[in-house]
């Protein structure tokens, strides 16, 4: 059984399974996170591990490299899998309720190619100790605390 973080599922709702890959990008005691701004759908920006959904036909590792580049502008070393968790949430950018199956990895950033190319994302370096307090979801924080 894959551990769940966050709100339990509502039995009256239908959830679409949405697999995703996310990464803790560590450099010394610092971690690279993203601040996601979606003013039309959120009251406040969210601090998240870089990553996102795995598109149909896409494998997790190429999806992770793509998402990291889009959200941070960085490339990374080959990632090491840490584990996975589930989270039930509404995804306003897609207009549906999702059972997010989040696989978490660890890697090191290698080179920054530019600014994030995905709208509404800002790449931020912060101490790991700060990230543990401000990450938007408990699952991300759980896996970061294991490193």
UniProtKB/TrEMBL annotation:
Indicate the segments annotated as coiled coil, or none if absent: none
Per UniProt, which keywords does this protein have? Hydrolase
GO MF annotations for this entry?
Answer: hydrolase activity
| Names of required cofactors | Mg(2+)
Gene3D superfamilies tied to this protein: Nucleoside Triphosphate Pyrophosphohydrolase
Q: Which residues form the Nudix hydrolase domain?
A: 16-147
Q: What is this protein called?
A: NUDIX hydrolase
The record lists the lineage as:
Bacteria, Pseudomonadati, Pseudomonadota, Alphaproteobacteria, Rhodobacterales
């Amino acid at each position: 059984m894959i551990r769940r973080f966050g709100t339990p599922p509502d039995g009256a709702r239908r959830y679409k399974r949405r697999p995703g890959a996310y990464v803790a990008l560590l450099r010394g005691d610092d971690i690279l996170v993203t601040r996601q701004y979606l003013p039309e759908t959120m009251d406040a920006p969210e601090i998240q591990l870089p990553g996102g959904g795995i598109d149909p036909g896409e494998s997790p590792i190429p999806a992770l490299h793509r998402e990291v580049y889009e959200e941070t502008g960085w490339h990374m070393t080959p990632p090491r899998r840490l584990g996975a968790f589930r989270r039930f949430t509404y995804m306003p950018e897609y207009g549906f309720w999702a059972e997010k199956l989040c696989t978490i990895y660890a890697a090191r950033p290698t080179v920054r190619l530019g600014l994030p190319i995905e709208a509404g994302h800002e790449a931020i370096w912060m101490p790991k100790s700060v990230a543990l307090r401000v990450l938007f979801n408990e699952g991300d924080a759980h896996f970061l605390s294991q490193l």
